[in-house]
Design a protein that fits this description.
The protein is α+β, with helices and mostly antiparallel strands. It has one domain (2-154): Lipocalin, CATH 2.40.128. 28% of the residues lie in helices and 44% in strands. It contains two helices and nine strands; from the N terminus they run αββββββαβββ. The termini are far apart.
Length: 155
Amino acid sequence: MKQKTIFASLAVVMLLVLGACNKTKQASERISGATWKVTTLTVNGVAEEHMPNLTFEDCDIYGGASCKGDWKYESYHAHFIWQFREKADKFELSNQSDLEDAHGGGHEAEENIIQCQNFSGVYEVKERKKDVMEFTTTNAVGFPGQTVVMKLEKM
């Protein structure tokens, strides 16, 4: 009887772990390999002037390498890494560019990199659908303690 109870307990734990992994994998696969338009980008309800497109490179979340992406506004790019975690209830975006990466692109190229840096952070996932995602945080790098909302639509 004791062995059956232990086996049943282990089976339940494994199902819970697999369920958590499956949510993270499913969310990652949904966003991976696609370009998403930022339709809402606000700080304490005030909208950003420039709305970028985010391209998420194909990524095997269990492959060991960081998942990479491109923050693009017009012809200006900033690079970031990203991941879903905690059963896909959290989404992390982290800028990987510095101002030297602007490559003589002028003020606009630098502003794009700064925007990517400022909006880097760990977000709560508020909506996770096939073509729409919404994230919020109060811990964005450039806006600590302020409410940031980022809403994406698949292009």
